[in-house]
């Protein structure tokens, strides 16, 4: 199982087709990870439904930051759809 955490605002909601393609791969577990408050979880779930974003889990209250530096960063959704990047 390959767990993929995808930010909601500015990423998943702007790349619905790509997120759903990742979801369709049964080896992937898609987590929508957002800094939105858990106080608006129901509204966020409704928005995901309206947008047609498919996912396995929703994680709220991500720490707010301007930049995230992480040893697991893969360069955004482009990484999963650019074979040259995946082979690096």
Our count of domains comes out at 1
User: How many separate helices?
Assistant: 4
Q: Summarize the main sheet.
A: 3 strands, parallel
- The succession of helices and strands, N to C, reads EHEHEHH
Query: In percent, how helical is the residue content?
Result: 25-40%
Shape: globular
The tally of beta strands, per DSSP, is 3
* Cα-based radius of gyration, to the nearest Å: 13 Å
The low-confidence runs, each spanning 5 or more residues with pLDDT under 50, are: none
Strand order, largest beta sheet:
1-2-3
- The amount of beta strand, in percent, is 15-25%
User: From the helix content, strand content and strand pairing, which structural class follows?
Assistant: alpha/beta
Q: What keywords describe this structure?
A:
88 residues; alpha/beta; 3-stranded parallel beta sheet; 4 helices
